[in-house]
Design brief:
This protein is an alpha/beta fold. It has 20 helices and 8 strands. Helix 7 crosses helix 8 and helix 14 crosses helix 15.
Length: about 475
């Protein structure tokens, strides 16, 4: 790049979502976020990622907070910065595919409550599962001039995932009407020179801005960003330093310093960033002291690159083996994971496909016979309920696990009737705002428990004293 051509790199700050999701299981409460919002708003970030992913479930389940309320409070505080969320395509933020009317309604309410950029991904990279969310966002954009649909491709390795594949996907995303593309490298598998090649190839195929999201799990993320920026990437995802590195993102301040005085200079003020870091540091110390932040997730796990398995999936697998007193089978399961992944059409390993492949690999090893027992999720993948995989699934395994069953070849959501009215009917006694119906749609049991808790708080009931068995609540 010629010295006089300036192309400042833009940064999305992840401290309010993915950074704490990755390091402390999404446990940061809203009240901890609000005091620093005004300072964060002065930085000039491309966007602040603050919602979606696991924040919704964790808010209701563990923090006893209304996630919609969090979004509204953050929107009030961020006067100049775009707010961003992560959205699992047709699964929204839940774990099953929803009808189109639920997707439409969720997109509408997210934007109405303050989201600017919706990052939409699918665990199989099946673009059919993303189209409805893109259409819903575009409809609002046409009507109100707000809303940005970003499609995220889950980055993974394997025979099917050639440079042609990624370039072809970039072209298709542009045709779908998305506003930008994100390469979502959830396991930290994208190495520096590969990133250069990939960004350059995709840039030659599409005019859409390209954003890169990775995790420091395997130790290469900072170098990957450097090469990606030199290759022309538009935006990178970073986390303020107290909650950076490890299974989180590269540190914001480090990236800002890296590009200082180059054509990619962000222009961000390090003093402001230092103020934000100072604010979060005591909370990090508190999380370390309480055990919420495990020092293990702060290091480099090179197994990620060797086995292509995301960190969360590894820890999940270890605990499954522990429960069965079969920790000695660890390496057998690691060898089995790529086999299962191949049988299931080589999907990227990201929620929920990573959990499905990992659990099935554990069963295969423990049973001593492959697919002697298949989980209901494995059967669902084989039936096509999650969508289409890049490579065909193993016919032999299909015949063994779901012999003679009919398989789905259309977009799975085409088979789901509209369900908003039915959902509203089921939960209407708890409804205080339209958004409650959507909370219930995603997590029926967890949301209902939260609604009961909220009701009790509003009635000033002491829930700890309540006799829930007979429904007697002392005031």
């Amino acid at each position: 790049m010629a010295e006089n051509t300036k192309k400042p790199i833009k940064i999305t700050e992840t401290i309010l979502r993915d950074a704490h999701q990755s390091l402390i299981a999404t446990r940061m409460p809203t009240e901890l976020m609000l005091p620093i919002v005004e300072t964060m708003d002065k930085v000039g970030y491309h966007s602040v990622e603050c919602w979606g992913g696991a924040t919704f479930d964790a808010s209701l389940r563990f923090l006893k907070e209304d996630p919609w309320d969090r979004l509204r409070k953050l929107r009030d505080g961020f006067k100049n910065t775009k707010l961003q969320m992560l959205f699992r395509g047709q699964n929204i933020l839940g774990y099953r595919p929803y009808a189109d009317d639920v997707v439409d309604s969720f997109v509408e309410k997210s934007i109405a409550n303050g989201i600017d950029i919706i990052r939409i991904f699918d665990c199989l990279n099946d673009l059919r599962n993303l189209q409805e969310a893109v259409n819903a966002t575009n409809k609002i954009k046409t009507r109100e001039g707000r809303g940005h649909a970003q499609i995220a491709l889950s980055y993974t390795l394997g025979d099917a995932y050639t440079m042609e594949y990624w370039v072809d996907m970039a072209k298709k995303i542009e045709e779908m009407g998305a506003d930008s593309i994100c390469i979502k490298d959830m396991a930290g598998l994208l190495v520096p020179y590969k990133a250069s090649e990939m960004i350059a190839a995709m840039k030659s195929a599409t005019k859409l801005p390209i954003q890169l999201h990775t995790h420091y799990t395997s130790g290469v993320a900072g170098m990957t960003y450097l090469k990606a920026v030199e290759a022309g990437v538009d935006v990178i995802d970073c986390a303020i330093s107290p909650f950076a590195m490890g299974t989180s993102q590269p540190a914001t301040e480090v990236m800002v310093e890296t590009f200082k005085g180059t054509p990619y200079d962000t222009g961000y003020d390090q003093n402001l960033l230092a103020e934000i870091a100072d604010y979060f540091r005591p909370y990090r110390d508190e999380c370390l002291a309480s055990g919420l932040l495990n020092p293990k997730v702060m290091g480099v796990d090179i197994k990620t690159l060797l086995y292509q398995v995301p960190g969360g999936m590894l820890s999940n697998m270890v605990s499954q083996l522990k429960e069965q007193n079969a920790e000695d089978k660890y390496y057998d399961v690691l060898k089995e994971i790529p086999q299962v992944r191949k049988d299931l059409g080589e999907p990227p390993l990201v929620t929920p496909s990573s959990q499905i492949v990992g659990t099935q690999a554990v069963f295969n090893v423990l049973m001593g016979e492959r697919y002697k027992m298949a989980t209901k999720e494995t059967k669902a993948v084989l039936r096509g309920e999650y969508g289409q995989t890049v490579k065909p699934m193993s016919q032999e395994i299909i015949d063994k696990v779901i012999p003679g069953e009919k398989r789905i070849t259309c977009r799975p959501a085409d088979l789901i009737e509209n369900e908003m009215d039915k959902l509203e009917g089921e939960m209407k006694e708890w409804k205080q705002q339209d958004e409650d119906v959507l909370s219930y749609a995603l997590f029926p049991q967890v949301a209902t428990d939260f609604f009961k808790y909220r009701q009790a708080q509003q009635d000033k009931v002491d829930v700890t004293q309540a006799d829930t068995k007979y429904g007697a609540y002392p005031v």
